């Protein structure tokens, strides 16, 4: 196939994303104020809890089998490599540019996590529907492609809310603790000065010494540990109490509730129904007794793609209204995600093909390559909002990254299609 035809095929999905995103930004303008902040919040909640999980579950239910799951075993590893290499390149970029500590979590998160859900969810079906598509029959291409994308979305979602979430949490906690130390130092100094001033004016009452404070703290600690226990009840050993405290802290640090996200749950349910034959016969097929459940989930899932793209455009509009972030940080993130990672991705995927790790399926290989060339995940903006770290800067990064991705994704998609054919 001629390179020009490949380029036209690749540019169409990106143009569709841009057009629908433009409609979302248009609806969010102050003049119309349809997708206002509260409307976006409620719409995003519906997409998050209903549309996207239903889409992932319905697609995996119909397409994933035990055999197909074995053939795509390399995908989880490939996605993990995008996160690892993205984080390494982001860390190297921070060291070279000496980025401020407040930006470390945002830079590492944007470099590590690509938009593994929404963008491929739009690009792959659009590529399959093109008349010049190199991936064969439209129906087969769409069925296989959506299965790959859904699996990619589920796996990527797990990595984002374990790997990237904890990176941003750690760096935001460091900044918070530093600010807290500074505030406490200032308050303690001012309190000490006030005590000295009061003592100089009046000699009533003894001054509290350091030894008294230590004695008081020791007494409080002993009182907390050595509680009175009624006779006949065995006292819990201190080691058990310490282990309990450690487990409690570990659960809080890992934030296990976040791992059980709706998309993750939808992915697990979809794979279970698809892999287990009795469940598949019960939900999938014209003669399935519970086919109405799968049909309903499919109808809900169809609303996910347009809703997500409209929200993407409305949220990116905030980037136009913000300023103050160093351009070098934005450029660095764009270079990592749009140039460095795709080059590494080509080397990794071609190496896996050379050693026979990946089976010969052009569409599967294209999806693996595409995972390295995607702009930062939209979930990063949600994570920064959770910790209140870099929300404004995140809007600027997202706007610049997605504008540049409209060009880079087209070029890389053209090259990837030429590479796998």
Automatic annotation (TrEMBL):
Alphabetized, the UniProt keywords read: Auxin signaling pathway, Endoplasmic reticulum, Membrane, Transmembrane, Transmembrane helix, Transport
- Give GO terms for biological process: auxin-activated signaling pathway; endoplasmic reticulum to cytosol auxin transport
**Where do the TM regions start and end?**
6-30, 42-61, 73-94, 106-127, 147-168, 258-279, 299-317, 329-357, 363-387, 399-420
Q: What is its main location?
A: endoplasmic reticulum
Where in or outside the cell it occurs: the entry states: Endoplasmic reticulum membrane
Q: Name one Pfam family in it.
A: Mem_trans
Q: Which GO terms describe its cellular component?
A: endoplasmic reticulum membrane
Extract the PANTHER family matched here.
AUXIN EFFLUX CARRIER FAMILY PROTEIN, PTHR31651
Provide the function of this protein.
Involved in cellular auxin homeostasis by regulating auxin metabolism. Regulates intracellular auxin accumulation at the endoplasmic reticulum and thus auxin availability for nuclear auxin signaling.
What name does the UniProt record give this protein? Protein PIN-LIKES 3
């Amino acid at each position: 196939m001629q390179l020009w035809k490949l380029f036209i095929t690749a540019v169409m999905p990106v143009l569709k994303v841009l057009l629908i995103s433009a409609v979302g930004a248009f609806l969010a303008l102050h003049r119309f104020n349809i997708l206002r902040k509260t409307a976006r919040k409620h719409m995003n909640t519906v997409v998050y809890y209903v549309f996207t999980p239903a889409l992932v579950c319905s697609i995996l239910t119909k397409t994933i089998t035990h055999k197909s799951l074995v053939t795509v075993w390399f995908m989880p590893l490939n996605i993990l490599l995008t996160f690892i290499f993205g984080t390494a390149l982001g860390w190297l970029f921070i060291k070279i540019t000496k980025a401020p500590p407040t930006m470390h979590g945002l830079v590492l998160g944007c470099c590590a996590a690509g938009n593994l859900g929404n963008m491929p969810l739009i690009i792959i079906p659009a590529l399959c529907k093109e008349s010049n598509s190199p991936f064969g029959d439209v129906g087969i291409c769409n069925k296989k492609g959506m299965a790959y994308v859904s699996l990619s979305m589920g796996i990527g979602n797990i990595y984002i809310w374990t790997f990237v979430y904890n990176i941003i949490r750690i760096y935001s906690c460091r900044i918070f603790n530093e600010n807290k130390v500074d505030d406490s130092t200032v308050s303690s100094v001012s309190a000490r000065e006030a005590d000295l001033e009061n003592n100089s004016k009046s000699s009533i009452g003894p001054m509290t010494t350091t030894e008294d404070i230590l004695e008081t703290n020791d007494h409080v600690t002993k009182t907390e540990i050595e509680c009175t226990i009624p006779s006949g009840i065995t006292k819990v050993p201190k080691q058990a109490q310490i282990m309990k405290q450690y487990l409690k802290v570990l659960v809080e640090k890992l934030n296990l509730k976040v791992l059980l996200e709706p998309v993750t749950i939808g992915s697990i349910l979809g794979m279970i129904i698809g892999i287990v034959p009795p469940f598949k016969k019960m939900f999938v097929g014209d003669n399935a007794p519970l086919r109405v459940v799968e049909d309903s989930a499919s109808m809900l899932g169809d609303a996910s793609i347009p809703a997500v793209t409209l929200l993407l455009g409305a949220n990116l509009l905030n980037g136009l209204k913000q300023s103050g972030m160093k351009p070098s940080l934005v450029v660095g993130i764009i270079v990592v995600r749009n140039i460095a990672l795709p080059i590494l991705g080509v080397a990794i995927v071609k190496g896996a093909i050379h050693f026979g790790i990946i089976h010969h399926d052009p569409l599967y290989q294209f999806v693996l390559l595409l995972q390295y060339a995607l702009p930062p995940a939209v979930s990063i903006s949600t994570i920064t909002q959770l910790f209140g770290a870099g929300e404004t800067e995140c809007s600027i990064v997202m706007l610049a990254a997605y504008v540049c991705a409209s060009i880079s994704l087209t070029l890389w998609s053209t090259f990837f299609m030429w590479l796998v054919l």
